[in-house]
Amino acid sequence: MNYKYKEFLNIWLDTKKVKIQSLIRYEDLINKYINNVLGDLYLKEINKDIILKMFNDYKDKLSNSVMKTLIYIIKSSLNYAYELNYIDYINLDDLKIKNNLHTIYIYSKEEQNILVNYLKTNLNIRKVCLLLCMYTGLRIGEVCGLKWEDINFKNNSLEVKRTIERIKNREDNESKTILIASTPKSDTSKRIIPIPEFIIKYLKEYYSNNDYYILSNSLKLYDPRYFEEFYKRCIKKCHINYVNFHTLRHTFATRAIEAQVDIKTLSEILGHSSIEITLKLYVHPSFELKKQAIENLANFLTS
What we know:
Layout: H1 5-15, H2 20-39, H3 48-58, H4 64-83, H5 109-119, H6 125-136, H7 140-144, E1 151-152, E2 157-160, E3 163-168, E4 177-182, E5 191-194, H8 197-206, H9 224-237, H10 247-258, H11 263-270, H12 275-282, H13 287-302
Antiparallel strand pairs: 1-2, 2-5, 3-4
């Protein structure tokens, strides 16, 4: 059987047992970047040179994340075609994307204290949940997905069971996107995190129904975009330079390292599958931490 590649990609997609948001991402990337180059080629016309040329053309135009997903789609689909004896094996093991080093902003201790003090005044549930993110490293979708049943007031902890995200609507109606509640992206993302005592006291003041989402105080899903906008307004009122919500997670991880929290514990709190991910993606030592490390070394060598 000699399908056109775009036809075979639909067959490959039907075999993927992944979350709906991942499936939609694959479909979007296929339509945007693969089909316009390779889609009309028959499977047996595709070779390594054609694929390498496509990626060479895209390398300065697309993010590393997009490029890596495109590589996965092409490798996986062509391997599947090979398993079905539709094509000869195409070795793409050397097709890799290098990680570009980039600076990630972290709030200073002064900025962090300004924001914390602001959030503690004239409390409301959104301010409490923003504090919760600052002291636990929760992702925005995870905090929006919290229900009261997920808070253990006896053990001062929370359990991450779900995440809220907005995805493309595949149904034929007016709404282009919809909100969904889904399981966390990996098994390690399902986790139990201790909550500081002062935040537990705040949460108790707003407790309502176990089945309710905390932020909406109802059964209705709370849109992460609303929480991002709330966060943005808080940052503005504190006269701090706005950086996206995920900066709170980066900052939490870095402060934890500065407080000498061991990396294994931090990795589990963040919900990572390995400590390497924690070190590589989220922990960015501040100048003060580097300075202290040099002082400690100097003291050790001269003692």
